Amino acid sequence: FFFAQERQRQRPGRQRRAGAASQALHIMNAQVIQLEDGWNKLKTGGVLKIEEILEDASGGVYKHRISTDEYSQLYTTVYTMCTQKPPNNWSEPLYNNYCEAVIDYLTARILPRIKEKHDEAMLRELVRRWENHKTIIRFLSHVFKYLDRFYVKRLSLPELAEVGSQKFLEIVFNAVKREVRTAILELVRRERECEQVDKQLIKSVIDIFVEMGGSRASLETYATDFEEMLLSTTADYYSRESAKWAGNDSFPEYMRKAEDRLKQEQDRVANYLHSSTEEKLLKVCEEQLLQNPEQQLLEKEHSGCEKLLLDNKTEDLSRMFRLFSRIPTGLPPIANIVRKHITDVGLALVKKQSVNAEGDLMPYVQELLDIHDKYTELVGSGPEKGCFQGHNIFHKAMKEAFEVFVNKDIGKSATAELLSNFCDNLLKKSGERLSDEALEDKLEKVVRLFGYLSDKDIFAEFYKKQLAKRLLLARSSSDDAERSMIAKLKLRCGAQFTSKLEGMVTDMNLSQDIQSAFAEHVKDKELELDTDLTVQVLTTGFWPTYKSDELNLPKEMLQCIETFKAFYDLRTSHRRLRWVHSLGSATVVGKFTPSGKSKEHDLLVSTYQACILLLFNEADSMTFSDIQGHLNLPAEELKRYVLSLCVGKYKILTKDPAGREVAPTDTLSCNATFSDRQQRIKVQ
Question: Which of 11, 117, 253, 365 might form a disulfide with 122, Cβ 3.0–4.6 angstroms?
């Protein structure tokens, strides 16, 4: 208050002054104060004097002050007038006079001073007058405190401070609020046009709109008298800006401007608007800058969403997602464009590959994987990862797009078959050489692509046959990789989908145990076998269906098989062995005499080829008909095996007459002069 400094300077004489005030109080209590006398003293020494002090103040410096003694006398006067016994108790007239004094002050002194000014000058005057008014009311509330504590409280009347604020609202604020609002909105517009404005002045005026809500801190006045018009003018402003940018700028340029403007509006709230305005203001901006022109922007001919995808403009695509994810309907139109784009890219690849459908199709599968990698990275896996931050709507769009072209056949080959072939090439020893990590990564990518197949059962059939070959012919490059791939398929399709594949791998492990037990059995029983035998016992339900035949085995093989059967029957009584010779292989030692010199070769052959060769231990030559009679194989099947031994790369046998046609009377003989640089030969 204005007497604070004087109080501090006179502190040493405090006891004396207190005594004097007490004496004055005693004297006044003994003397009745009449209403007119008391009110004249309060009005002249309090109301009018504080008004003059504030009027004369300059730059926060007061030329005059109210002393402590003056304040004490004013307070004592109010106390006495309110505590006198009727009919001299002046509580009600004092309250009414206080209200009238405030009204007179606001009507005669404050309102005219504000209305005579315009624009920023008017705003500055309003701020100064409001601050002065709060100071006056605060001072008078202390002077009339006794009135507040007893009379006002007893009759439930508005407190004096509340009366002061309410009268300012009714007399001053309501009279100038339209002009004030217009002036503020003009400053906001100028700031949006990059002009420098007095932000503190705007904030001070905005605070008045908020404070007009009264002691209950209601924002009704702020919302009704200012915020509604702010939102309306903002919508108009950005509607015009949006139309101008959309016509002149590219889509990326438009987005950069929109992003900057949204940031500016957030800063505007932080600088001088009420925090409750932020959500509503940004919503209006988003509607005008993003929601209304979205389709026009996305479809811009040389810079729209499709062009950004074609040119892989990741920064612009990320900005597009950030912006349009702010509005409820923003992402579905973008997802539709993304879906169409990925579909078009995939179908173009299918069309290009279909021209060369008879060639090597493994590069096509790799291209599918590369496309999937590209768009997986684009869609992303979570917040701050990828242009679309892993949003479900884009994962769905990508899935739907891939399902369209991944299920297109290339010539006569279904993608399910091609994916299985690709896996086979990765997992077999003779296939692509990769580190363990690279192999694991590529298998994971294949399984993701597999997820888009509509004919997963076709993939399963091809994969089962190729896995069987890798396992039975010992062509698998890694048992761990095989198990890992099966685990990935199981995770995606469930245990039922992979149960047979897991059973096949289990069979191979059990076969090793059975083979070891058989070797121990032969050793313990001191059995003599002319041929080393390795048997793989398979469970019929797990493996592909293999045809059986009535092959007559040579005695060297028959002895081994019967020995193993006897051993196996001792181990189990509820399983029956059925021999599948088409999967068997053998190593046959061939003794030849090229140039009259003895030479041996290890011939790696199938069981059928071995049976044919072993017949020539009994005779130097045989007709095709004789061979068929000994082995009991269908003629067409036997021809294939015979030709592989006499007209292939390695001519172990000779045929008379020569040629690729085989007649029942054709004679086959052992080629005693056969020779090759390799000791170990694999006959296909």
Answer: 117
